[in-house]
Design goal:
The protein is of the alpha+beta class and 204 residues long. The chain has 9 helices and 9 strands.
Length: 204
Amino acid sequence: MSKTYRLLLSPNSVFTIKEISDLLAISDLNTLKVRIYRMLKHNQLFPIRRGLYGVTGKPIRKFELAVKICPDSYSYISFDTACYKHQLIYDWSGVITVASSRSFNFVYQNILYKGIKLRPDLLSYRTGIITVKSGSHSLYNIASPERAVVDTLYRYGDVEFDDLFTLNFYRCNNIAGGFGKKRLLVRLNKLEESVKRLLINRND
């Protein structure tokens, strides 16, 4: 099987150097660099940014790219992007927002990828984070509706959402408990009371 074909068969659409090393079974770094250089030269791979590559003829999965921009294993889709994905907000700028270990702005194919820095302990706190898979292969992580709301309130304070009628506030409070911020629980309670009032008004 050719080296390129192995990458094409992989569920991934974006590859780190480590993933290429594993797929091609090349452990020596110098040998790997030579192989990647040759594949770039022959238009089998194309560079996305330093340390990230795509395979020619294979479409890039945007959320997968987003979580691989920052070289840590804890990045996940959250904030506006996750809220829009879960239909908690109706308007979205198109900027793909990522909870990450550092802040970044990266533009690829006219799309802005924005890293929003969270504390290391919050990134490693995985309650409410969903792993999206292809078969048994993990592709990227995204915040659940409840985690997206908690992340947003934690990062930006009191904000408005468009539709929280199906949100599970019990789960929100469980997730928020791991953030260690009483003010966050106050914001959640305020938001829940607001949703309850809206429900009462809708039923009148």
